[in-house]
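Dear Dr. V.,

Thank you for agreeing to look over these. As mentioned in my earlier message, I'm a first-year student in the group and I'm still getting used to reading structure tokens, so any feedback on how I've presented them would be very welcome. I ran two proteins. I've put each sequence directly above its structure. The first is here:
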Amino acid sequence: MTRMHEMAIAQNILEIVREEMTARHCRQLERIGLECGALSGVEPESLRLGLEALLGESPWPQARLDLRIIPLKLRCFACGCRFGGQPGQDALWQPCPQCGEQFGHTVEEGRELRISHLEAS
């Protein structure tokens, strides 16, 4: 089931796609590439379902969605060790594997929510 939050984001994504296609004089949309970070505040499967539903009602029902989940990657405040890599938010609550520090880690990846590419003509 698609949540309202993700449906609104899906509508915004399609509006950005329409604007980009108009600016580049494209008529056919083949593929949308999205990157969704573990801390983006978006449930990826709900976003996928929302976009697929909207694409089905759009001028581009054949368009496909490439959704890449960006895992959470942290840098330890104390020693600089990079760790994480899990698809969810679990690394936020784990101590640094190198020095054991539990707090103050910097999020280096995992907040992203962006259109990575479009294939259109």
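The second protein is here, in the same arrangement:
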Amino acid sequence: MILSFRKTGKIVEIPLVQIRPCRTQARQYYDVESLKALADSIRMNGILQPVTVRKVSALEYELIAGERRVRAAALCGYTRIPCIILTCTDNQAEVLSLEENLQRTNLNCFEEAQGIRQWMRHAQLNPQEAASYLGQQPETLSHKMELLKADEEEKQLMVKAHFTEKHIHAVLRVQDKTDRRIVMSEIIEGSMNVSQSEQYVSDYLENTAREKRRLQRKKGWLKDIRMFHNTIDKAVAALRVSGLAAETIQYDTGDSIEYVIRIPKTRQRMADCQEMTA
């Protein structure tokens, strides 16, 4: 896919108040310390690379590339910033902004995945075309898109914890969101590396599956016990109707449940029972 743009051919200083953010900015998280470091560099050396904008009205420009430089310049107290002006359509500007951001190494993996998805939609590319354009295998691109299964809260937590892409893929093996929070907390608390995280997740999933099977067996066992208990109750009720003062006593020994059925031999007890059921 080839995009053509026309530049003004010169660098122009534009007031920061006239520059608006790009609507399809891939970056969502800005590290404060990183911005401060960039601001310190700008104070010492100035802005070495102009930002790229396009004119959208008489007094307004839309930023295409250079969001961090704009923010750092503002931290330095700059009121104007050097810009290269492009002439392009809305769609071209969106695609160029996304492509520019994808080539920057300081996007986190979630921003990169989100940017690729946006870029594919705007450029109307299927996964095979996008993978070819990016020089990746379709499986690699698909693997990256799986990162977007995490919700926003999970993304922020994992970015803050400096999870690598492999860390995130390990966590996303856990389907249940509550379990996923537990796994993330344990990995963060234990400062686990990738291999440790992968092993922990595997163990967690195995233990969870084992516990689920145990509960299912217990559920089936309890159902059998209830059926047995009902059978005994019906039998004892039939004895009472026939005039026998039968009674049951149940003992839970911890390892087992014991039932004792008592049927009195004395006629008085039997007479009392007949009188009770009369």
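From my reading of the second output: The longest helix spans residues 194-241. Residues 212 and 241 are 43 Å apart (CA to CA). Does that match how you would interpret it?

Kind regards,
E.
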